[in-house]
């Protein structure tokens, strides 16, 4: 799928330091740049959130609704990664927040260099929170640290309960797991217990929030999480931490 990380349909990144020798130099260079980004964000007391999901899990709708709800609470900007179109960026800029689009072409993940470039176009001094909407893919982005302080992964009820078990590195690295489109759970016979058990198995330290950007259910809990973390970053109580995959 992408020449940078050699990932294809069947290949998943192992995060245990074996089976990945070819990609280690690429990831090492990326990690160094990610640490630079992290230092830059820390100097600006900025909470940076990396958001991951499969295509169609409701990421853009969620961020639109989040921007509206947080308007009077925190100053937020978004960097959007997409293979081609700028539909997502267009939708988000309607929420009246600064949005920078990164078109990745054939690359199925964002990397630290792209973020370093994109943030030059973002008024970081005027923001409390920077959300990075990663490319819709649960394999490669897990390996690429961007310098974020918080990782959020989406699991939509329409995707099936076993998704976390199929993509353990991604879910394992998440600080927050959002179960999205909860308003459709009954319609698609979503097995909530099985989903929560799967999340507990591979993402046991993640804070799980069930929500619907359509009905608003769970959105307060999600927005409170962002506001609380942004406050702690501002007060210097939490550092943006690296996600290591060695």
Summarize the SSE layout with pairings:
Blueprint: H1 24-43, E1 47-52, H2 59-70, E2 76-82, H3 87-93, E3 99-103, H4 112-118, E4 129-133, E5 150-156, H5 163-166, H6 168-172, E6 176-180, H7 192-202, E7 207-210, H8 219-234
Parallel strand pairs: 1-4, 1-5, 2-3, 2-4, 5-6, 6-7
Number of DSSP helices?
Answer: 8
Radius of gyration over C-alpha positions, nearest whole angstrom = 17 Å
Query: Helicity, in percent?
Result: 25-40%
Using the coordinates above, name the CATH class.
Alpha Beta
CATH topology name: Rossmann fold
Supply the number of structural domains. 1
Strand content: 15-25%
Largest sheet: 7 strands, parallel
How would you classify the helix and strand content by structural class? alpha/beta
What is the averaged pLDDT score? 88
Oligomer: single chain
| Number of strand elements | 7
Judging from the principal axes of the Cα atoms, what is the shape? Answer: globular
Low-confidence stretches: 8-20
Q: Determine the N-to-C terminus distance.
A: 23 Å
Write the CATH architecture name: 3-Layer(aba) Sandwich
Element order, helices and strands?
HEHEHEHEEHHEHEH
Query: In CATH, what is the homologous superfamily?
Result: P-loop containing nucleotide triphosphate hydrolases
- Reading side by side through the largest sheet, how are the strands ordered? 3-2-4-1-5-6-7
Keywords: GTP-binding, Hydrolase, Metal-binding, Nickel, Nucleotide-binding, Zinc
Biased composition (Basic and acidic residues): 10-21
GO molecular function: GTP binding; GTPase activity; nickel cation binding; zinc ion binding
Region (Disordered): 1-22
